[in-house]
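Same chain as my last thread, 303 residues:
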Amino acid sequence: MDRRDFLAISAAAISRAATSTDRTDSKMLMRRIPSSGEAIPAVGLGTSGPFEVGTDEASRAPLRDVLAGFFDAGATLIDTSPMYSTAEAVLGDLLTTAQQARAFLATKVWTPGSGAAAEQKGIEQMQRSMSLLKRDHVELMQVHNLVDVATHLKTLRKWKADGKIKYIGVTHYTTSSYPDLIAIVEREKIDFVQFNYSVTTRDAERRLLPLCADKGVAVLINRAFEDGNLFTRVQGKPLPAWAADFGARSWAQIFLKFVLAHPAVTCVIPATGKLRNLIDNVAAGTGPLPTPKQLAQIVSATK
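reply #2:
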């Protein structure tokens, strides 16, 4: 995609964004889940890595602060998985009763196989996730990394009908998965799809993001910081003066606002276990979003 195409797509995207957002400059950007119309805050929290800790208070105390800051900022969506070692258990232990009532919890199923045995393994794994999260339901259950999608989607649809989950979806974290994600979005009725997208990995702009918008599928974005590699790219660079024009006060906010500028994006879920980073991240959900010209400036600044 050359710059002219990118600017054209971005201009159309920002024009459409006005119909899909609801906020004032001092409040968190809200995006609507197409399948229901429910609005959720556009910046969430990932748990892979930082929440994979033990039972000692020294490891867990910073995470309590992160959760407190997260909900104080008006955010709600927390993404986890049984693949993330202890993350589900830690999250279930740390969420207060008040936080549980506000949390939009998203977790996953990822047991391999096929047939009845695989289906039962998936059911058992999801039951364990519910128990660890101290929930009798979760807002979103996703098939992790497209493992045995057909088997698990069948179960998820039944659980959704039974009220155990509110939304169903699928996930992956690599651009090589896009053809499979596209095929699923085209043929399956799902509520969410989760995948990677960032200022330096924009392949999703070509087909996947527009398709999700067309099909009415909500989008969760992982790897918005490219596993920290974006910060390496800009290390030692001063924050550009033009960042203030869209309210960005850090490189992290620039990177997150770039992602949120695409109206097909429902929520971005950067993971952190540090309160200062959490405060920085959620602030990206306030204030204006970059214009097409500013999006091009962000791209140039990270080359």
